[in-house]
Amino acid sequence: MMQKHTVAIGQARLGVIAALAALSLLAGCNSPMPPGGSSSAATEKTDDVIGANKAIAALALPPVKPLAPNPEYARFPRYVGTLGGRQVEMKLGAKTDEASGIHGEYKFVGSPSVILVAGDRDGDALEIEESNDGTHITGNWIGKFASDGSVSGERMNADDSDPQPFDLRPAVAGVTVPANREPKAAAPSLEPAPPAVKAPPRNAVGGTSNVIIGE
Question: Where is the composition biased (Polar residues) (predicted)?
Fold first, then answer.
């Protein structure tokens, strides 16, 4: 009787062990991340995404720092008018080192920051470039001056896209940026003048005087 009881207990233990083994096998099959390839592949994908985000952040341009008005431009002729329907104010003055060069700044009315401009006025033609950070060109202006000093034309992006009309007039009648100016006279040379060459005597023959000076 005792022997039969012992055999029954052993069979029960074997059944429990088999059941546990089956459960372990099922758990391994249902695992979303089987050991080996899938886990490492997911890790590599995550690393790629993080690396791409870091590269994008490194290549991103820093935010543009607003430019403050230049006190030196305060004395320049001032123009008021519109750019693409918005009110603007521009100050333009002649460059001192270029006969037709002009430069200055403009701003939208109500904005504390300015945008720099520089270019040329050739007769009644105006061609200037703008920069909102003092380094990169952000736009081009092409216009024409009228007899009363007003100027109108188009402002485009740096790639000549999105043209917008502009119309500016002198804020003070008659006070406008000058047209072409004569180049500045050259500074006097500090080099000594070459020695003067004396002319031979009138009675010289072949460069030798025929006058004999007595002893």
Answer: 206-215
CATH class as words, domain 71-170: mainly beta
Longest pairwise C-alpha distance within the chain: 174
Query: Which distant-in-sequence residues (6+ apart) come within 8 Å of 147 by Cβ?
Result: none
Q: Which among 132, 164, 145, 139 has a CA at the least distance from the CA of 61? A: 132
Q: What is the pLDDT of residue 40?
A: 60
Estimate to the nearest angstrom the gap between the alpha carbon of 214 and the chain centroid: 85
C-alpha–C-alpha distance, residues 114 and 131, integer Å:
9
Contacts of 75 (CB under 8 A, 6+ apart): 93
Total residues found in the chain within this entry: 215
pLDDT band at 54 (very low <50, low <70, confident <90, very high): low
Separation CA 150–CA 175 (nearest Å): 10
Residue ranges in the chain assigned as alpha helix (H): 2-30, 37-59
pLDDT tens for 166-197 read 999 999 988 998 887 655 455 554 555 566 65
Neighbours of 49 (CB within 10 A): 10
Quick one: 116 exposed, middle or buried, by C-beta within 10 A (0-12, 13-18, 19+)? buried
Question: Which DSSP state fits 31?
Answer: -
Burial (Cβ within 10 Å: 0-12, 13-18, ≥19) of residue 143: buried
